[in-house]
Amino acid sequence: MAPKKRTPTLGPEKLPKPEQKDEDPINSILFTLCRQDEFKKAEDKLRSFPVPEGVNAREPTFGWTLMHYAAHSGMPAFVNTVLEKNGRIDVVCEQGNNMVSIAARGGHAEAIELLISRKAEIDCRNKEHGFTPLIWAGSYGHVKATESLLEASADFHAVDYQGRSAVMWAARHGHLDMVNFFLRRYPDLSQRDHEGLTALDHAREHLELRAAMVMAEELKRRMLDASQRDDYDEVSLALENSCHPDVKDEFGWTPLCWAAMNDSVELARLLVRHGASPELLGENSELGRQLAAKHRSVGNVLWAQRRWSRQLVNSAAYEGTEGAEAIMIGTHVDRVLQHACACVVSYPIFAEV
């Protein structure tokens, strides 16, 4: 029997090469660079690619896309590059955070403003805690990011699944500058979470912060009492100490309401000059509703008489610059104060009512 011929073994150089699969540049290169915080290199690498099909691919851990990493980097140039490559701005990660939430958590105000300008959702809640971008920024104490969100009309009163707002989380973590920022704009600390706790309660472990909040509450009470008594000097002192001019008492009345009730032109002018909102005196205000219940009118019964309106506007005109412009003023005090507020920063008014 003839022996079988042995097939010679092919050397490594003669073996057929396996089929090479195209490497996904998004998953293998860009995500790796982003995980290493090499965002500038990732941006440069992304620019060198044509429009990649996988620009909206997700990494496996948290479900982040390149846009999430761009928001996390806080680099507007990186965000713009991803957008130019058709990156989606409406994608949320596995935890339910969108791009604005990621940027807010990192305190990246410029990235927040850019994302919002591209119509990113500003009050998106995540799945686990119900945090909005504002709550993220407040809980980490990012004042600039918080300011950017509020200027874009983020919901200050939004709460998470425990009923806690941004100011509550800022107080809970002891962010003094953050809480002071909130107090200058939204001085009402009476809101309670699902456990019945206020922001002051959440600050119990931070003595300096708690003292500042107690002082703010005391300043608010003193200004409201002084407004009710028509005490110009006391109100002026409270305003100089950064008390908000639109603080409200338990009935929803502001110092400007009391100035109108007391027919106090000087006090009204002081409050308007410090930013008090004339809209709080309108027919739909709390004051207007209470007066309506007593069959009284905001416009022409209680304190919007022709004499008072003329006196208020003429008094406010002293704050104007040179030049004159005639404006017809109606009898409603809210309209009078709107024009008075405008004249403080723009021009004198000669009113005819």
From TrEMBL:
Q: Where is this region: Disordered?
A: 1-24
Q: Where are the ANK repeats?
A: 95-127, 129-161, 162-194, 251-283
Recorded hits in Pfam families, A to Z, give: Ank_2
Q: Which GO terms describe its cellular component?
A: nucleus
InterPro entries, per the entry: Ank_Repeat/CDKN_Inhibitor, Ankyrin_rpt, Ankyrin_rpt-contain_sf
Report the superkingdom from the record.
Eukaryota
Q: Which UniProt keywords apply?
A: ANK repeat, Repeat
Q: Which SMART domains match?
A: ANK
Comp. bias intervals (Basic and acidic residues):
14-24
Question: Know the name of this protein?
Answer: Ankyrin repeat protein
- Native source species: Polarella glacialis
Instruction: Give the classification, highest ranks.
Output: Eukaryota, Sar, Alveolata, Dinophyceae, Suessiales
